[in-house]
Specification:
Elements (H helix, E strand, L loop, with lengths): L19 E4 L4 E4 L5 E6 L10 H19 L3 E8 L4 H10 L3 H18 L7 E4 H17 L3 E4 L2 E4 L15 H10 L16 E5 L15 E3 L1 H12 L4 E7 L3 H16 L5 E7 L2 E3 L2 E2 L10 H6 L4 H9 L7 E2 L2 H18 L8 H12 L4 H16 L8 H13 L4
Helix pairs in contact: 4-6, 6-7, 9-10, 10-12, 11-12, 11-13
Bound molecules: 5'-O-(N-(L-cysteinyl)-sulfamoyl)adenosine and zinc ion (ZN).
Length: 409
């Protein structure tokens, strides 16, 4: 699957600092130590509805990871998936009387447009679940042949007990896992499972649903977690630097994915850090496609909102906090963008050398984008009060805002 075009990342003087980031598995902050090629996997959308502000906030967090790494002169190997076949997508297509492939293609195209407008750097590999199926089947066969997976009426389940490290990503107790599993695509109450938490790896073909050749597994379609594992192992291998997504993916998705991969390879860990973004709410509830309380990026754009203002609204919240989208959040961002643009449109201004360092330090400190914005605010306020004659400063501020924050001034 093709991704979207990359916006140019302006070069900056000097070099950024190494990223310290909160890791869900250890529950603390770690300093990442990627090689010359940093490796990141970020879970992509299930394309049955348009990109909402919650999605955009999560992708914004991982876009910052990529920008910080690029600023340390590393290459970034970024992989993202599209869950272009799964229950919610098929259910929505049936509800609307639409072909599921057309629905997935349309919403994926809109996601690309939104990501481009928001200046999110694209993944190097953008891979759909459907195109990953030929790679998924042998993994499920291997898990089954080694005894880590079992058959239940033609469906194949992963046995969570086969991984000695199971539970080490989310650290939840069995009851919490059971509740979240039921809420997030699992089937803990299905009779016949060895452990209620065991997730499906391969679902045998159902009447009226799409299915693919699964070799010795029979016709069917893949489970959700093995999709991301197959794509990540194929393009990144074990022990990559960051596994990213929203906090609703810590369990079961990232927990199960880590277990699948660890059992498949006999290696540990799947990822060096599991990084989770907070949830964006609207009217007091998590924004979610299933609830329908959504603010779409595309709707805002079509209403004439500058994508740079949307981006600033996302950046104004720390990626790990849960926050609420309101009209005021957007209004504040629009005003801030106006102040910044006015400040960089002058021929000279106060030196911005210290500002570059401040933004670098803020982002290296667990992606503290709000602190980075305040640093630019201070420079803009100095500029407003007429303080400086550095002719290179406005250009440097524009470049640093673009290179490190993805904001085009
Ligand atoms: N396709 C799977 C991942 S493999 C999936 O979760 N798709 S999704 O479309 O439901 O979500 C895409 C990303 O947006 C995930 O990382 C998810 O955690 C994140 N996300 C969903 N809702 C919100 C929200 N309200 N706030 C912040 N992030 C969200
Ligand atoms: Zn995923």
């Amino acid at each position: 699957m093709h991704a979207w075009p990359a916006s140019e990342v302006p070069a900056l003087p000097g070099e950024g600092a190494d990223l310290q980031i909160h890791d869900t598995a250890t529950g603390g902050r770690i300093t990442l130590d990627p090689g010359p090629v940093a490796r990141i996997y970020v879970c992509g959308i299930t394309p049955y509805d348009a990109t909402h502000i919650g999605h955009a906030a999560t992708y914004n967090a991982f876009d910052l990871v990529q920008r910080v790494w690029l600023d340390t002169k590393r290459q970034v190997h970024y992989v993202q998936n599209v869950t272009d076949v799964d229950d919610p997508l098929l259910e929505r297509a049936v509800r609307d009387g639409e072909d599921w492939t057309a629905l997935a293609e349309r919403e994926t195209a809109l996601f690309r447009e939104d990501m481009t407008a928001l200046r999110m750097l694209p993944p190097k590999h953008y891979v759909g679940a459907v195109e990953a199926i030929p790679g998924i089947v042998p993994l499920v066969e291997r898990l089954r042949d080694s005894g880590a997976a079992y058959d239940l009426d033609g469906d194949v389940y992963f046995s969570v007990e086969s991984d000695a490290h199971f539970g080490e990503v989310s650290h939840l107790d069995a009851e919490a896992m059971r509740l979240l599993s039921a809420e997030r695509g699992g089937d803990p109450d299905r009779p016949g499972k060895k452990n209620p938490l065991d997730p499906m790896l391969w679902m045998a073909a159902r009447e009226g649903e799409p299915s693919w050749d699964g070799g010795s597994l029979g016709r069917g379609r893949p489970g959700w977690h093995i999709e991301c594992v197959a794509i990540a192992l194929d393009h990144l291998g074990m022990g990559f630097d960051v596994q990213g997504g929203g906090s609703d993916l810590a369990f079961p998705h990232h927990e199960m994915g880590a277990s699948h991969a660890q059992v498949l390879t006999g290696e540990h860990p799947f990822a060096q850090a599991y990084v989770h973004a907070g949830m964006v709410a609207l009217d007091g509830e998590k924004m979610s496609k299933s609830k329908g309380n959504l603010v779409f990026v595309s709707k805002l754009r079509h209403d004439g909102v500058d994508p740079a203002a949307i981006r600033l609204a996302l950046l104004a919240h720390h990626y790990r906090s849960d926050w609420e989208w309101t009209d005021q959040v957007l209004q504040d961002a629009v005003e801030r963008l106006g102040r910044w643009r006015a400040a960089v449109s002058r021929p000279d201004g106060p030196s911005a050398d210290a500002l570059v360092t401040e933004i670098r330090q803020a982002l290296a400190d667990d992606l503290d984008a709000p602190a980075a914005l305040l640093a630019v605010d201070r420079w803009a306020a100095l500029q407003q009060s007429g303080g400086g004659t550095d002719e290179g400063a406005p250009g440097l501020v524009s470049r640093v805002a673009d290179a490190l924050l993805g904001v085009a001034l």
